[in-house]
Design a protein that fits this description.
With 192 residues, the protein is of the alpha+beta class. It has helices spanning 9-20, 25-41, and strands at residues 60-66, 73-79, 87-88, 95-101, 104-115, 118-123, 127-129, 134-137, 143-147, 155-161, 167-175, 178-185. The strands form 2 sheets. Strands 3, 5, 6, 7, 9, 11 and 12 form a 7-stranded antiparallel beta sheet that branches. The protein has a 5-stranded antiparallel beta sheet with strand order 1-2-10-4-8, covered by helices on one side.
Length: 192
């Protein structure tokens, strides 16, 4: 199902379809990262104008494609200045994320302990990623934060999920390295 038409959309979808036919998450995400890095730099692939428009009070999630055949979804996320996420998971799904425009700061976390419904995380370094870069998350290594570190510019990232990501776990700080877990329903912003 084509959610939005944009220059190069068929090429993007064809490359994703080829990758998701592979037999394991590591091979799929490796192929998707390579393809995504190449497609982001290709002037013939241009995301719809609406994905470059930030929402004032939250980062925007806009679905640009969902595969009826393979089940994956492609979400463009628009990050206004300083907008970002709490530590969260990906509901047990692999994901590949690429920076299309601006810069994104990504910090992966390792869950190192649980105790009576509390979770302890340790950061595993922070990366400042620019256009044409991509990374992946494969459970159980799926915890991270993302934010736009800019004080004035908009950032856009493209996220390819194994399925429709409609909810995730979000972790709220309790003090120290300990967090409480909360389930969050995820919504999509309008694409015009």
């Amino acid at each position: 199902m084509l959610a939005l038409e944009f220059p190069g959309c068929r090429r993007l979808v064809d490359e994703i379809d080829t990758a998701v036919r592979m037999d394991c998450p590591q091979k799929i995400t490796d192929a998707l990262r390579t393809s995504l890095c190449r497609l982001i730099r290709d002037a013939g692939v241009r995301l719809p104008d609406c994905v470059f428009e930030a929402a004032a009070d939250h980062y925007a999630r806009r679905e640009i494609y969902r595969s009826d055949e393979f089940g994956y979804s492609v979400i463009a996320m628009t990050w206004g200045p300083g907008q970002g996420t709490a530590i969260h998971d990906h509901a047990g799904m692999w994901c590949v994320e690429g920076v299309w425009h601006g810069q994104i700061e990504v910090t992966p976390y390792e869950m190192v302990e649980t105790d009576r419904g509390r979770y302890r995380f340790e950061p595993r370094g922070t990366t400042l990623a620019g256009p044409g870069s991509a990374g992946s998350l494969i459970p159980p290594h799926e915890y991270h934060t993302i934010r736009n570190p800019s004080d004035e510019g908009v950032a856009v990232s493209l996220h390819i999920y194994r399925g429709a990501m409609t909810c995730c776990s979000v972790f709220k700080p309790l003090g120290g390295d300990w967090y409480d877990r909360d389930e969050r329903q995820l919504s999509l912003d309008r694409t015009h």
